[in-house]
Amino acid sequence: MDPELEAFVPLLVKADLTDPVTDRKNYAERAAAAPAPNTTGMEIEDRTVPADPDVPVRIYRPNGAWGTIVWLHGGGWVMGDLNSDHHFAARIAAGADTVVISVDYRRSPEHRFPAALDDTYAVLTWAAEHAAELGIDSNQIAVGGHSAGAGLAAAVALRARDQQGPAIRFQLLNQPLLDDRQETWSQRNFTDTPLHDRDTLTAVWRHYLGSQPATPYAAPARADDLSGLPPAYVATADSDPLRDEGITYALRLLQAGVPVELHQWPGTFHGSLAVLSADVSQRQFAELCAALRRALAP
């Protein structure tokens, strides 16, 4: 493990996911303790997207921004909200010179699949249909996220393709959660890794799906056909149960003719990007922002 990251491991607490309300509170407290991002010169606006039910969003507009990303927070579909993801969304906006629409999708287990996907798709559709009002280009909209949010981004790209929905320029998938089957080598062997391990991810899928069978819109790794999807940047972490499903998904995208940039970060673990003082975390953020900036360049 990267020595700068290893020093933080004893301070990390895994969510056991038996009490989602307490887990959310703890998650929010940890997020609030993160260094505040620099939002100088950035317009930040909270809005509500009309849907059934309405979806809260937070829009970040850096000076001179081009392109837009519909951004989806992590937290295993159970934890996280606009406030806990503020540091991530603001840094993506500033680093990529991109308008970020951060989505407060409904969380499980109170709202199981497809609630979060429906919320995300409603926001994507709203952004495309109201591009002129929002001052964005409907042809330069990306989707992206971290962990469960990255899984949602991959799912909404599949749905938009299948339903001839809004055009998506790019998908930014950071440590994506894609496969409920948990059969990869990393899923079977990483049983005591920091923040997330096989058991916590089993609980995440149980909360998200309940008794429903998984479909490709819930677990994109189950999709048989990945052709016609937007170009992708996929980032994976070394000591992460999700590592191999992210790499496999990237390879399948490539085999389906989709342009892909894949970056496997050695010495890292799931969510270690939050350790902002580490050099490897700074490089990860820079790579995410650079990939997005290139993809949305006019």
From TrEMBL:
- Keyword Hydrolase attached: yes
What range(s) does the Alpha/beta hydrolase fold-3 domain occupy? Answer: 69-272
Q: Which domain of life is it from?
A: Bacteria
Which Pfam families does this chain map to?
Answer: Abhydrolase_3
* Alphabetic keyword roster: Hydrolase
For whether the record's keyword set contains Hydrolase, the answer is yes
Q: Which GO terms describe its molecular function?
A: hydrolase activity
Name this protein carries in UniProt: Alpha/beta hydrolase
- Write down the species: Streptomyces coffeae
